[in-house]
Amino acid sequence: MGIVSSGFFGRGRRDDPALPPGQHLTDGFPVLSAGPTPRITPEEWEFTITTETGQVHRWSWTEFLALQQDDVSRDIHCVTSWSKLGTSWRGVSLDTLFESVESDCEFTMAHSYGGYTTNVPLDDLLDGKAWIAHEFDGEALEPAHGGPARLLVPHLYFWKSAKWVRGLEMLRQDEPGFWESNGYHMYGDPWREERYW
Amino acid sequence: MRTGWRVAEVIGVTPETRTARTLRLRLPGLTGHRAGQHVDVRLTAPDGYTAVRSYSVASALPGDEFDLTVEELADGEVSPYLVHQVAVGDQLEVRGPVGGWFVWDPADPSPVQLIAGGSGVVPLMAMLRAHAAADPASPGAAAPFRLLYSVRAPDAVYYGGELDDLARSPLADVSVVYTRQAPAGSGRPPRRLDAATLVESVLPAADNPAVFVCGATAFVESVADWLVQAGHSPDRIKTERYGGTGTRP
Amino acid sequence: MTDNLDDLDYLDGNAAAGPLSEFFAIDVVSARGRCASCGRIDALATARLYPNSHGLLLRCPGCAEILMRLVDTGDSVCLDLHGLSFIELRRG
């Protein structure tokens, strides 16, 4: 550890039982910008699940909105150490999307408009743990935050909740996504501080 | 160039405005630096949390001392500490000075146009100071220097007295555009910098000046576009965005 | 937020000089690099740097593809260069 700057504590860091280790609360919703924001209209948006046999399950924006919608409130934790408690989302549960999908794979890769990828085990997407969210705080999800729709996997670090998501690819073996291939943790549990491998 | 984190000592603090101050640091082993470079500053909290930010060097001193001018950002994490808490005798971890691109070279005889938006004046001040201190025999010492400084209000101006002195000297032309509040009695209302004002204030494209632009990202984008439209070669325009979405000029 | 200002959330590649100084003995941001995607050749200092992310990303100012990706985990720092097909240094 370097020289400790007396009187420097970082922004708003304090112990809170709702916060995983090393996290601090934010009232805002920081945008981590890794590149130009993709501008995807609902008309061109689609979501797919591609199985190991090459079968593609496809939903247009209209079909997606016709599915059962869940309203969920969850804490989210960004690996850059901010957390936001009780965020409100509306979207479609992955359980709903996977109802018609036949696959023996245990792993998935989320793909986004703009090229971003992140890997998530299938078990972490099912049983009410993950959604494709299109509203935040009662409003359409802004492009800067991943709109029209993003993956929402709130029990993992937020980089797993891929912005501008366009599909899931079923994988037999776990593979690293965009940040995972350069040092980020393959799983990313904030309570075990799985930031990096 | 030395790499890695080293420990510098704060040997002086000077307020510039209500929200900005200049820290003079001593970094043992440093033997000067190039005008326009920056340093990364790393702060470590007692629990091991660290935060790193980059700050431009404002000075052009030959030895192991240099100045950083830091503007306090409203939602900043590091800048409030540097502006309000750090005191003479404190130690800071720094990396640099680094960056060999956005620098003025005294061996370059080209005329120089500097364009600053707000606190973007800091690395440009280093260039003005390096030019003023340049060996008269160096090709750049006699190069025409001109600064266009876009700033919110008179009380937001950095290095005001020194810029006034420079403006009266043969070393540089200085023009200031006040965007929100003009000086009392100036007779000129505040105005935003626009393409026409820019073109009439800067060295003409025909002189093929080396142009350095520093400010918020939106400011730099607009200014660079206007310069190119006015015939300046993109190859002659070097930019340093200091981040923040800010406002356009 | 309905404007495009979020698309201005980048700096110049020059600002990556500090972190990259851990890898290169020279000031690599002044070197020219070739984008592996579109072939553009320019100083790395002119690339778009996205520092406000999970790591440091340098993107080509021409095609926006990634030139460099740097992840600092504290114990290690990883530099991914697969977006650059060469780096050229000028001597002297």
UniProtKB/TrEMBL annotation, chain A:
Xref: InterPro entries: OxRdtase_Mopterin-bd_dom, OxRdtase_Mopterin-bd_sf
CDD domains linked: arch_bact_SO_family_Moco (cd02109)
Protein name from the UniProt record: Sulfite oxidase-like oxidoreductase
Region (Disordered): 1-37
Domain Oxidoreductase molybdopterin-binding: 35-179
Biological source species: Cryobacterium zongtaii
Highest taxon in the source lineage: Bacteria
Pfam families: Oxidored_molyb
Transmembrane segments annotated in the record for this chain: none
UniProtKB/TrEMBL annotation, chain C:
Pfam families registered for this protein in UniProt: DUF6510
Top-level division of the source organism's lineage: Bacteria
Record-linked InterPro entries: DUF6510
Descriptive protein name: Uncharacterized protein
Organism per entry: Cryobacterium zongtaii
